[in-house]
Queue: 4 jobs
Job 1
Amino acid sequence: MHLKVTKKIYWVVCGPEGTETKALLEAEWNSVEGTFRERAEVKTIKSLDKTSFIFDDPEHSVVMVMEAGSIKLNSDLIALTSRLKAFAMEGGTVLYGGLIAPIISAKEFNSIFGEDGFNLGWEWLRYSGYANKSYDAKVKGVLNCIAEVYENNSLDLQFAKLPQEIDPFRPLVVAVQNSSHVLYRVEDHQDSRGIKYNAAVVMAPVGKGFVGFCGDRDNAAQTRQIMAAMASLPRKE
């Protein structure tokens, strides 16, 4: 029997109340939160003050950053990166997803994941849904079975039975220098840039913990499954 310690999820939703973005979060992403609540203890964080981020037991905790702004990120979230990096170094998991994808700018993304942040060599590349000025353009995500976190099964991702492909969707595409960080690569053959790899879902070890980014903006059932697996939550029987 495969046993897991119950996870504690810090669910970050810090955008202004009553905004269109907040309504979209509630309409489109409540199912993700519901999936997490079925399998873990969830604490919602609506303020980025210091007392909100006192973490207990990082090795059994996950920070899930779903949204922190309306048309741009809350600047406090970027300032919080050093604390989230320390949390990961101590064994915690930090995941970015949901409405982060459509509102984060290239500069903000690089501030979090570049040299001044987690220093993972990840770069904002493009919104695939805007390719060729078409909002209907979609790409397919393909599982990278030699991703470090999948191949060594450190998060039980093989046990989670991740889908081999993500049905065509509109993600924020990320350029990654290290192919072992790519959990789902983008199969669209656009913007090939030398040694860099294009991805829709990326994840890498940081210290004793992990950091991941899921660029999905469509919230498909497959993505809910993938995000729950990245948080190392037990499968629902």
Job 2
Amino acid sequence: MNTSQNPNAFPLWSDEPAEKDLLAFRAVAETVADAIFDDDLDPIAIGLSGAWGSGKTSVLELVVAEIDARSQGFDGKVLVVPTQPWRYDPAVGPKESLIAEVLGALNGEFNESDPVGKAGLETFKKLVRKVNWTKAVKMAARTAVTLQLPQLDDVFGLVNDDPESLEGEKGMTEFREQFQELLADPALQHVSRVVVLVDDLDRCLPDTVVETLEAIRLFLSAKGMSFVIAADEDRVAEAIQQKFHTSDGDKDDESPAKLYLHKIVQTTIPVPALSRFDTEAYLFLLLGKAGLEDDDYEKLVAQCNELRISGGGLDAVEVAEGSALADHLVTAARLTPILYEKFHGNPRRIKRFLNDLNVRQSIARRRGFDLKPDAVAKLMVLERILTDDFEQVLDWLATNQLRDKLEALDLVANGPGTKAEPEAAPATATQDKPASKAKRTVAAAEDVAPPSSDEGFTDTLRRWARLPPALDAAAISGYLYLAASFAKIEVIDSGLPERLRDLASSLTSSLKVDRSGITDASLQALPETDARTLVSFLGRRTRDQPTIQKFSVESLLRIAVAQPAVAADVIAALKSVRGVDVEAATVLKLRPLDADMYGPVLEAWKSGAKLEPVVNSITVVEKAWDTRGN
């Protein structure tokens, strides 16, 4: 994504291999290249093993770059043939597909204008006849294989329908011998090595895995052939075991499947998981890329590499104080401990987390939730990594306990007097519950008690609470509803009787038609117990989500008139709303009301009010009450 053209856009990172070495994998690539260029190891098949997303494809890209660099002063051309068995045409056999890619690459090296080249091409065609191409060309001449061998004359004339051509031991022996002759042919004298880079073999079905390995085995008797097989060795062994129905063996490395694999692959180089430093550096470099020119980014990558070698920390990186890069450095430092532990140093999972983070932030901003990136990142850790704790927090949201529980959690996690000032709730954020498919329903809870130091919070939730910044319920409740809809979780307070849910929804709706549809007569007709339950719910929800006070406070005042018996409950509900969250217009709603009855509410709001318009409104109400009293 080009964020330079759209300042409101958030960058997304492709899953394609990185062009620059952000993962400190160059040392691995150089080791692979050492083996490829070692004459004593020729021919060779090298394994490059790592879990999915560990960066194997990025290492292969670095291997290509290293081969190109070393080939400059090398005697003879090094022909690199990339292949992905996972993407082979299913209409073509895996063995034939791999052979076709190797032969197709060699086919382009013949000079037909030269007599030596013409003679070599005849040897090449003779070898092609050993392969059963029937499956590849029986439908049309322009199939995958014919495209891979674009310079062959009359492909149909080369078709061999003899199933024994490569299936029998004799056929394979003849192919090996003729392939060795082909590489030694004067027409290919300029080609010193053929390096086949096999990627994504661990994604393939067992039949494809075994047939690909058998094709590799065909080539490994020829001098000048090298294979680099980037795949999770354990998954490849599992595929072999499934194909041949072998046992696991007493020891993992001595299982029949592993012995079969190691007969073909002489040595395996593991792709290391990212260290804690590497995780932090990777996060920082991904976050910082969008705002830097290429030259500046190159310098930043080099600086991180130097710190890695010297054993330094990223706090030594030179960034301007207050810059976006400084913010990225702080965000990376905050996220590293938990991402390093939960993602086990897997680059793809880290990159995916950042992509998800930016998608969430983009949608949240367009929905009106003006949360800072570090706040969204903290919520994303909860949503994507601590899923059980995420459901617990949604539980609090559903039962209007979010503010009190977050305050209690902060007290337990950070201790008294350490709480940072939370960011204010976004004034434009809508708190309406989003419609979503019911996957789970959040459980009910009793009315929350005042925050205490022992709320039974999980260790992971306490650890999460220590991540900065401090989060305020009013600021994050809208985002949590959005996140719940992504997860297909309906945020429903099942503690509120179903008969009152539609009523409560209408009384807090932003649509006037919904609120006016609830008549005073219908409020008067409520049983007293239902009225108390409704008042308690509206009070808790207003405390948790102050942005609904424009509607909820008016509804509470209506209930106090319609149900005098619950007036004390209404007063308690209004007092529970923090003065710092009260809006000036809300205060003015008390002006025409009884001073003796609502005086305690005004005093409670006055003690916490900070904004000048709110303080002025409180003064206006007090003067109006004094005037009426005189």
Job 3
Amino acid sequence: MVEHWRKTRNLTIYVLVLWAIFAFVVHMFAKNLNEASFLGFPLGYYFAVQGSLVIFVLLIFGQNMLQDKIDEEAGISEG
């Protein structure tokens, strides 16, 4: 059980670090990215509005899939 919680903690830390990178670090470069455009919108704005949301949804699904795998390995899966 200790191994299960170690893997769960590490996964959570990994996902939170990725979330922080896409929530804060990428947007620090928005001003420089705004020099280019995508679909008529400044690239920094597009990344902030669309790109971050897509990444956050992918992080949620990825974390869920990996956590299910960790739970199955420990024999405590829901299904």
Job 4
Amino acid sequence: MTEIVMPRLSDSMEEGTIVRWLKADGDHVARGEELVEIETDKATMAYESDAEGTLKILVEEGRTLPIGEVIATVGEGAPAGGEAPAPAAAPPAEPAPPVPPAQPAPPVPAAAGAPTAPAPERGGEERVFASPVARRIARERGIDLATLAGTGPGGRIVKADVEAAGAGASAASPQAPAEGDGASGRGTTTGIEPTRTQSLIARRMSESRATVPSFTLETTVDMTTATSLREEMKEAALEGELVPTVNDLVVKACAIALREQPEANGGWRDGRFERYSRVNIGVAVAAPGSLVVPTVFDADRLTLAQIAATTRLLGERVRSGEITPPELSGGTFTVSNLGMFGIRSFEAIINQPQAGILAVGAVQPRPAVLDGAVVPRMLMDLTLSCDHRALYGADGARLLERIRALLEAPLSLAR
């Protein structure tokens, strides 16, 4: 019998939520077969079975557990599957003998159509046999579980039952939203429950902002030469050949600068400095309802073309939901680029325990002074946020200045 535990799917993961079982209880599972979808602080991903045998699910969908907790077993035959049904049959048996069904009798004379209402009120939601997911959705939508008939095993109320009831309620009361329109003038306020990933991102960003004594440094880079170089590369590129983006140039420049300045390729954790031997650049990628930071490993050793190919692949894997835990781990520095939205500059929040994060703005034509004359140039703003515990002002300034110099001499990056 092999225990399947909540795995550590990223370096920052402390707990995970079971989103969906991809196999049913009692199914035969092969080694390496996708078993369950788990939501972490970074993404939702499938986890493969590391054993072969009959699956016994111990934790239901919607539950959140710390890493290392047992969520299922995979073994031979039905030892685990044969013992579990007995206790599972007990809960449905409890509601039959108890007093509640017999006590609604007094209210019957008063209202012939209301015998079902008193019973739920006496037992409350605690007496209702419902899955955790069903309970959560019911709370969000204000649905009384005691009024629902479960379609799950043993009369258990499942997610589909609550969603069906919610759809019926919406159709029956189209005027309900107006109830929330008060003196605030906001109209109806709809509460939206965040996903597990969104909640953890919010928590980590709040912790970073509240606990990291950060400072920011800004500089403007003349990208005129780099822009011309990219145009030349586009013209010379064969059909289907990748042309490095501005962000690829930035990743390469950061990698070289971090290799030359190892104290910046580190961080602060548990009251100690950390220095990393590898230069791994995390690249922030927007995903539906989330923000994912896949890693370009050993970026200082890759050519510009290799970095371009890697970032394209990682971006595609994030958007398709195929990104894997190893690809989200091990970053030593992060690059966040909002230039594609026309954003001139912004300040990014440090991804602990890393010492810094670089915010990249748009490349835009602006007036600049060159050789005593005001001329149009293609300029880009960079903002470096640093953890003052790991980097001092002069350290951050040297790093940002080196990144700027490399970008203004792009031929050094194209090698």
